[in-house]
Amino acid sequence: MEMQVGSLSHTGYERQDNQDDSRWFTISNAELFIVADGMGGESGGRTAAKMAIETIEESFNHAGARIEDLLLQSIRNANTRVHRMGTSGDPLYANMGTTVVALYISENRDKAYVAHVGDSRIYLHREGRIMRLTKDHSQVQKMVDGGLITEEEAEDHPDSNIITRSIGQKATIEVDVRPSPVEIMPGDKFLLCTDGLSGLVKDAEINAVVESFPNDSQSACKTLVQKALDRGGHDNVTVMLVSFEEGNNAPHKSPAQSFGDRINSLVDGFKANKALWASILIVSLLILIAVSLIWKGPTTKDPKKPPAPEQTEQTEQTENHSPNENPQPSNVAILQLMNAGHHAYYEPNTRSQKAFKMKKGSLFSLMKEEGTWYQVKLDDLNIGWAMQEHFKVIGQSNSSDSRLTDDTKDCEPVLHQVVNGDTLGKLANTYKKHKVTINSLKKMNNLSSDTIFKGKWLTIVPCEKTNN
After folding, report:
1. Which end of the chain is more exposed for a tag (fewer CB within 10 A), N or C?
2. The pTM of the whole model exceeds 0.70
């Protein structure tokens, strides 16, 4: 299978330096991915994360050993080394530690091995669903396991940053290694991240972002990091996305290069062994003739499909905000927010949990009505409930939304709904003859960045005066 890897890390808005670290190693044609979230000391967190990753890579000599044992021992070695420096008496490294998540992909790319310590996570995205392959070593998770709080209460709990296990914390460490590997299927995506992402972006939202970039791991990483930054970015945030599709097994060569190498090898072999190749050709033709004579027609059998791995925790799918559970009706009202400073909420008739902040002038699809509340959709990632009094209806649209045409009147606003593949640059280029630019799109739609998500409504005005 072909493998595609995306990776991105950001310091965030409230930290002075980035103490996260991530690496991708190739070990005897197998792949090892590691993400670490360092902490403690004046510069100890950054050092702990780097030291842990380097120690795991150095220890990973898998001659004659089970992968699970290698993951266990290499992380234990990392703990010993980090703990030794953290207790050396040097104030720069006092009490330093780090989380670690490690993903090992077998040489044939058919199995994935998982190990972790701390609250960094590994997710598996498969067939439109996302599941956690790791379980947080945190105070809040212990409370959930003990039935003291619910999963919903855990998301915004004040103790969410307290972890119960980390590399370097003690002289010995208990490492969680999944007892059996995950069988990799075409289309599988493995997401490694620190709590800078998972602490701010819900699992359902992560799922929607990964789903919206089926063939672009790097863009998915950029979007996820930006999502965390938009929620405040109070911590370092690091994301790695490893995606698998049917195809060539060599990720380090382009398909064209690999194909050319194979052709050259065949040509050289033919030149050196013409008689042998002629014999093989004759035998092959005879076999084909024999098969055609006895062929009784095709039979079909469903290929054996590996079972989905048991997930550590079931992904929360909230009825009122999961994009996959809110298909947009074929004919909807388009709403515009009239006043600034309002939020959409996850539930109607309450103001307990905010889904997202709404900007004055933004356009929304009306999904449902309940009493004096609207369920509104800004885009495929932002769906929530808000009071009807904040909106006005500006039009109706069916599944085939309006587009600019040669008959469109000058300076007459047209609504455009974002689809897969749309970017501000692409839209500006498409409607260039209508004097539409990226800046005019951002100004008209009150956009602070170039990121636009599927399902969002944009106002496009084909007017030279307006777009200048």
Report:
1. C
2. no
